[in-house]
Specification:
The protein is mainly α. It has helices at about 5-25, 30-55. The mean pLDDT is about 95.
């Protein structure tokens, strides 16, 4: 499972991004909200990269 590390990092980035986005909404910080959304997107890409690696291993 070559993609396990990427999947774990992706999941962590998605979770951290959601927290940042929520904090930005609560505090009214559009910058923090945008950074949270960007981190979630990064997490999606990492997770996808892990999925591809796993498929290539098979």
């Amino acid at each position: 499972m070559a993609g396990t590390s990427d999947k774990a990092k992706g999941t962590a980035n998605k979770a951290a991004g959601k927290v940042k986005e929520a904090a930005g909404k609560v505090t009214g910080s559009t910058e923090a909200e945008a950074k949270g959304k960007a981190q979630q997107a990064k997490g999606e890409l990492q997770k996808g990269k892990g999925d591809v690696k796993d498929k290539l291993d098979k």
